[in-house]
Amino acid sequence: MPLYIDDEDIFAKFTNTDVIVGLLSIKIIASSVAITPALAQQLIRRYLRPLASTEGRRAFDERQKARWNSIFFLYVELGSLSKDDDNLWQLACAVELVYSHTKKPPRDLEFAPIEVNTFFDLCGYLRLPTQAVRYPMGNRDIDPLCFCTLCWRQPMPGRALCGYHAPSGPERFKDDERSAAARYKSGIRQEKLFENTVNRILTRETIEFHESSFQAQTLFPDRNIALWLVERRPAVWNELGHHQHELTDENAIQILLNTLHNPDALPIKAKALYRVINEHIQSHPALIWPMLVRAEGWYQSRELMEKNWGGKRLGAGRPEQAKTC
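Predicted structure:
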């Protein structure tokens, strides 16, 4: 991915000649190779770090894992250090430009979904090492806690939406007779209510967890899983249907994944991704918690929407005529 900005814009934005030269050098290299976070960090340190003051260089030298977000936070730190130092401020802006303009449209700062942050916060209080087992075989390109924008499923490779919600997804998805376009439009209509429902679940359970001095069984349990689902994820429990009678503590994860994260209707590449993730969650059951939060929020919000569809809306239909004698 090149640096998507015209030379004229660089000259217009910056007055420091050395910063301009540094950015143009980065742009030349970026035009011929794929710019990963690691390479972007390397180029920033090579062409922009030497231009900084001693204090500014310390910010460049902090040992951080190469991530796009860590490059953004370098920009933030340089900006906070710059104060009246115009040179350091221009370097900060140059770092931000590399961060944002190596993608088209420009990259925004990406934060983990709230349920993922909440999950790791709760695990942290209980000293559970879930961060260490997040990625299958340590492969950060496969993230079981990455979700479709509109539901709980894993997005299609390289996409923001899953196979169920992608407009170009399978025309038939399990027992849903609607077209891919219809499922997508329905997901968009449900999105805001879905997000609000997830937030409500998280707020309630986080407050309960803290008020119980970390004793509440908020996270996914090892035992009595069926009771936990009935109490905390009732909409997911209802979705299990006849599998409720088969569910035991030993097979609960498999039944939940077969119901919520079944790859059978997906293309081969997505199918392989889902299987890797499902196997990893079976090996580390605690990781299913964020998925269950989102699934519960989705099913609850869909039920609320269905109650308000068409003639089911309160006050829908033609008003009754007053009876005459």
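Summary: The CA atoms of residues 162 and 174 lie 14 Å apart.
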